[in-house]
Write a structure and sequence with these properties.
18 helices; FAD/NAD(P)-binding domain; FAO_M; about 800 residues; eight-stranded mixed β-sheet; single chain
Length: about 800
């Protein structure tokens, strides 16, 4: 029933699906009742009503995602006791089938990681699968992974239970009111939410949460908020009832056959995730679409359906009661859009659920409610932060092509080396032709085509995805070794670059930065930007050229996040921010002979005495004015070169020619990763994230402890003053064969104390190397604590002995950097 629209609410939630009602419920749990949820039609209309209702936790190597799913599962089991309405949750279990060697290896890695985070999961054989789901053909399966606590839930009942719980705590839910756009007001360099405009009038608000599902993108665009979700066709088939079906059978998934299977109404549901999908209504979702269906494309789906039904042959013999097609909303990278919009204070988003909205809804509702009421999230948000998206991802052609491809990866094997092929070449480096001519194997980096490694220029570089050592590793090793023994040249033009200028630019950057970025001209400072609670917000460098001219450099993935922080930091100060990422190329010249290459191209003094570590000056190099910064991300003598894009190709060729006599090689991102991990250098969003303090991340050296004021100062100094119970450590495997990628559990003796946040192969060290965050509980992470037990890493279920150190294994004193 439509209720009268109030004049004001502190928080307005847009969308009455399972996500919106979960946020409303959790806000109520936190005692926040000044909340209005607006639903344009009726609760569950859109996508929630037709969801398959799987409550499965298996499959993620993200700590945040695993916690979100486990919380959801626990919530669904107890929600009816709180609200009086059942969610229909049935913990019948899940079996995930592994039909090939790559999937088996992947699932063993996943299982090891998720056990570390509290999930009960068991590897079982084909006979055990057949016993638990007797209708499945199992003769060609290698194994299954049983999660006893998983199961199914009724999406409509769940949503109604959440809505009732919210109402019981004072939240107002109004159906039949459509939000047309969000009302904002400018405030310096940013704007802030002041309300919503609806078809029933305006409603004043301080915070708006866009949970509009497949309409989220269009609603966001009206306020310049980038939410590139796209609806796609999603199918499931329901058979007629037939004898022998047990409603207590587990959910059974066989990704290799594109299908999931569960009991439904005395028959079976066969759900599909086909390898090539179809976007739906790229031009915009109809405003009046609510409980509608999409006519099935039998011709396109026929072969995929046959494959799925062949796994459970009886589904081809009994009658079909319903072949359903409805829209589901997908993101370009299969991760949801969650968080506050950059540059628009008070505008939050939780949308783009990638067909896992039901099983994520409880956890995401809790996370958003905490975020909105406290000002920050209490989990790592770097993997799903809204500000990771770029405006070009709203393009209709991009959404159509990427959605068709990315939905097909839901049930694909996630073997290292697989790349998406759509949406490529959005940005090209100014030296694109040069790196391609040098034999680059290209990789997508936030829309940029970048070299991952270099092969034979006369032959097209090829990669066969795989979990083990690959033939192209020899090229990677050569690049790595060239940097350690001679010199390598990296094209890093994709790095985010911001010119910050004006009379108060230094004051703004000093306030944001934990390091002293304003000490003197022609100086670069590696620094962190912190939250008020002292946890990491960004990890970057700031070049002070003059008192009113700065260059901020961050990773590609942090581009819009840093831009948003800058805008908020500037506020009404007399400073200007300009994104110069595409205007300037950036090359990294690294290695013990890098100075010789630079000296061959400039008359300037670049000796250690004349150009010490952290110097930053504009110098003539090969006849071009270049901002030269003495810095390294690989642990060697090195220089970063910033050059106008129109001069970049000439400089690149000059560097390659000058470097040839001393063994220069062009190097890609694979070598950058292996080199920096040997040296223990951090990468924000991978090894370190927004749940870590500078002390835990081992970055206390980058904090200017004598600075009077910077965001998070008190909390940062407090964390540095006490013992570190959590700490990032370097890890090196003793056995040279196993590989590290990410999420491998780390053991001290027989106790799991953390996991690898990043991994690579240390060609100089002779084994796989990585960085892990360890938790010592009540003890402090010290050298003595580390030495007090033997260490090992779980690699796909096998314990591999390892060495662990607070210091990097390569050149811990950094003597090679300052020469």
């Amino acid at each position: 029933m439509t209720s009268a629209l109030p004049a004001r609410a502190r928080i307005v939630i847009i969308g009455g699906g399972v996500i919106g009602t979960s946020i409303a419920y959790h806000l109520g749990l936190l005692g926040c009742s000044d909340v209005v949820l607006l639903e344009r039609d009726r609760l569950t209309s859109g996508t929630t009503w037709h969801a398959a209702g799987l409550m499965t936790t298996f499959g993620s190597t993200s700590e945040t995602n695993t916690a979100i799913r486990l919380y959801s599962r626990d919530l669904f089991a107890r929600l009816d006791a709180d609200t009086g309405l059942s969610t229909g949750f049935k913990p019948v279990g899940l079996i995930e089938a592994a039909a090939d060697a790559d999937r088996l290896h992947e699932y063993r890695r996943v299982a090891a990681f998720q056990r570390l985070h509290g999930l009960e999961v068991h590897e079982i054989g084909p006979a055990d699968i057949a016993e638990r789901f007797p209708l499945a053909r199992t003769d060609d399966l290698l194994a299954g992974f049983l999660v006893p606590g998983d199961g199914r839930v009724n999406p409509v009942d769940l949503t109604m239970s959440l809505a009732r719980g919210a109402k019981q705590r004072g939240v107002q839910i109004i159906e039949g009111v459509r939000v047309e756009h969000v009302l904002t007001s400018p405030r310096g360099a940013v704007s802030e939410v002041v309300g919503v405009h609806t078809d029933a009038g305006d409603l004043e608000a301080e915070v708006v949460i866009n949970c509009a599902g497949m309409w989220a993108r269009e609603l966001g665009e009206r306020n310049g908020v980038v939410i590139p979700n796209q609806a796609a066709e999603h199918y499931y088939l329901i058979t007629e009832p037939f004898p022998g079906v047990d409603p207590n059978w587990p959910v059974f998934e066989d990704p290799a056959a594109y299908g999931y299977y569960r009991e439904e109404g005395g028959g079976l549901m066969v759900g599909l995730f086909e390898p090539r999908a179809a976007a739906w209504r790229v031009d915009g979702i109809p405003r009046d679409f609510s409980f509608g269906e999409i006519p099935p494309d039998w011709d396109r789906m026929g072969p995929f359906l046959e494959t799925a039904m062949a796994r459970v042959p009886i589904t081809s013999e009994v009658g079909v009661r319903k072949f359903f097609c409805g829209p589901e909303s997908f993101m370009p990278d299969l991760a949801p859009a969650v968080g506050e919009a950059p540059g628009l204070r008070g505008y939050f988003v939780c949308a783009g659920m990638n067909s896992v909205g039901i099983l994520s809804s409880g956890g995401l509702g809790r996370v958003l409610a905490h975020w909105v009421t406290t000002g920050s999230a209490d989990v790592d948000t770097t993997g799903f932060a809204l500000d990771r998206f770029q405006p070009w991802q709203l393009d209709a052609r991009y959404r159509q092509e990427r959605t068709s491809e990315v939905l097909g990866t839901v049930y694909a094997a996630h073997t290292p080396g697989i790349q998406l092929t759509t949406g490529r070449g959005i940005h090209r480096s100014p030296v694109h032709d040069e790196i391609v001519g040098a034999g680059a194997y290209l990789r997508d980096v936030s829309g940029w085509e970048s070299a991952d490694w270099y092969g034979d220029p006369a032959a097209r570089a090829q990669v066969t995805p795989g979990w083990g050592h690959q033939p192209w590793f020899r090229e990677w090793a050569r690049e790595h070794e060239a940097v350690r023994s001679a010199v390598g040249l990296f094209d890093m033009s994709f790095m985010a670059k911001f010119a910050v200028t004006g009379p108060e630019a230094g004051e703004v950057l000093s306030r944001l930065s934990a390091g002293d970025v304003t000490a003197r001209d022609e100086r670069v400072t590696y620094t962190q930007w912190l939250r008020a609670d002292g946890r990491l917000e960004a990890d970057l460098t700031v070049v002070r050229r003059t008192a009113e001219d700065y260059l901020v450099v961050a990773s590609d993935t942090a581009s819009r996040h840093v831009a948003g922080l800058l805008a908020r930091g500037v506020g009404e100060a007399d400073a200007t921010i300009v994104d110069v990422t595409s205007d300037w190329a950036m090359f990294s010249l690294q290695g013990p002979r890098s100075r010789e290459v630079l000296e061959a191209l400039t008359d300037a003094d670049v000796s250690h005495a004349g150009f010490p570590f952290r110097s930053a000056r504009t110098l003539p190099v090969a006849g071009v004015d270049v901002l030269v910064v003495r810095l390294t991300y690989v642990g060697e003598l090195g220089f970063e070169l910033y050059v106008p894009a129109n001069e970049a190709a000439g400089l690149w060729r000059a560097l390659m020619a000058a470097g040839e006599p001393v063994g220069l090689r062009p190097c890609g991102l694979k070598a950058l990763s292996s080199l920096r991990l040997e040296k223990g250098y951090r990468d924000f969003g991978h090894d370190i994230d927004d749940t870590d303090t500078v002390a835990e991340a081992g970055l206390g050296f980058a904090v200017a402890k004598n600075k009077v004021d910077f965001v998070g100062r008190e909390a940062a100094l407090a964390s540095l003053a006490g013992p570190a119970h959590r700490r990032l450590v370097s890890v090196l495997l003793d056995d040279p064969q196993p590989l590290l990628f990410h999420a491998e559990p780390l053991y001290r003796g027989d106790t799991s104390v953390g996991y690898l946040r990043s991994g690579s192969y240390g060609w100089t060290l002779g084994g796989a190397v990585g960085l892990a965050m360890v938790d010592a509980g009540d003890a402090a992470v010290t050298a003595d604590w580390i030495a007090g037990a033997a260490w090992s890493v779980d690699v796909a279920g096998q314990r591999v002995p390892a060495r662990v150190s607070l210091q990097p294994f390569y050149d811990p004193a950094s003597s090679r950097v300052r020469v």
